[in-house]
Amino acid sequence: MTLETGLPGLVAGRWTVDPAHSEITFTIRHLMTTVRGSFTAFSGEIEVARQVPASTVRADIRMASLDTRNAERDAHVRSADFLDVERFPVMTFTSRGVGRAAIGRRARAPRYHVDGDLAIKGVSRPVRLLAEYHGVGPDPWGGIRAGFTATAAISRGDFGVEFNLPLQGGKVVLGDTIAIQLEIQAVLAA
Q: Which InterPro entries has this protein been placed in (predicted)?
């Protein structure tokens, strides 16, 4: 039996992330521009509780699926200089709590913060995602889907991803901050 959660259409239960209709993307400063990339292989589950703050999120991202649309750069980022995907093939996120986020007057959707632990290269650090709920609807295959967007910013140095090249004037090739964006479609389990 599913129970309403107080968010329009969202019911309590197990929701599975559909990777074919979801995206995990990121940006990082490179010299004077921004490089964009994505991870194409991932899985996740959202356990929506009747009281939304008791909900949980778990995600596994396959690090070798990194794609910045440049094969040489991707190979370098997968190497031991950066992500060391042979030793650390999976990045994980496990939530610790969900809370209502402050809502500005222009907010288009209900917003929550999802606090959890992100593990990269064997290093786990707390991360706060800012998540928006976009609603629920039926899909053409007889399922029920929910849509979410989530964003966060992390320091790659906090996870031991410190490779860089110095430039004149004390600058470096790569920025430390990685901006993350998730576009998630999740399917309610039968």
A: Lipid/polyisoprenoid-bd_YceI (IPR007372), TTHA0802/YceI-like_sf (IPR036761)
State how many domains the chain has. Answer: 1
Is the residue at 121 inside a domain? yes
Domain-located, residue 3:
no
Q: What is the CATH number of the domain that holds 156?
A: 2.40.128.110
Q: Residue 134 — very low, low, confident or very high, per pLDDT cuts 50/70/90?
A: very high
pLDDT tens for residues 91-130?
A: 999 999 999 887 665 656 678 999 999 999 999 999 999 9
What percent of the chain is helix, strand and coil (3-state, nearest 5)? 15, 55, 35
Q: Is the pLDDT reported for residue 19 higher than 90?
A: yes
Cα–Cα distance, 45 to 156 (Å, whole number): 25
Residue 27, in any domain of the structure: yes
Among candidates 145, 106, 111, which has minimal Cα distance to 129?
111
User: Considering the domain boundaries, does residue 6 fall inside one?
Assistant: no
> How far apart are the C-alpha atoms of 146 and 118, rounded to whole Å?
23
Give the pair of three-digit tokens for residue 113. 């913060």
Query: Pseudo-torsion of CA 71, 73, 75, 78, nearest 10°?
Result: -130
